[in-house]
Amino acid sequence: MINLFIESVLRGATTLVFPPNCMNCGLPGVDICTECKKVLTPKPRFLLGEDFPLVSSLFYGDATGKLMLLAKENGYVAAQKFFATALAISINHFNLNYPISIVPIPSQRKSIRRRGFDSMKEIARFILQDPNLKSKIEIVNLLELTRQVADQSSLSERERYQNLDKAFRVKSGIKSKVIIVIDDVVTTGSTLREAVRALKERNLTVLGAATACATQRRLAIG
Ligand SMILES: [Zn+2]
């Protein structure tokens, strides 16, 4: 069932803005060509180094980085669906047999304004198309930022920690939920850790976190 879903997404979305070309190499006719599929096939695994379970499905390299730009900066639907599929595979790796709430890491208001859309929300919406997950999950935007934070990518590990210290809070009026936190990429894990901290502070149950991609640096941990 899940393979059919992956196939349908990899073979091509129906709502393309541009004619289908391989999103990585440009080969015409398909969203991802056979050759590029070799590096763009999600393989879920638990990553070490956190005090909560963390699953990721893709290595964040040149090809995934290129697709990430298409998904996040250009709002390219086929790329967003690609990451939604990878995230669905990561979430399915938890072997859920009861309903849970999926909580996306909130985007910064300034990046939503600049892009004109919230890429994480778009991607999260497509996760609901996974046939195995759609009856089990709800997407709940429980977290919000308490302040502006700097772009993590240029910061050291210590700076990332300081940048995100108490940066998230849970929106008010939330009842008890069982949660998996999701994000596009995990590098040091500081964003996910801050999200888990904020949720646990409100006595919410966090099963773990799932991301589409993990950086080489992250994969080297543990
Ligand atoms: Zn290709």
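Residues 22, 24-25, 27, 33, 35-36 surround zinc ion (CB under 6 Å).
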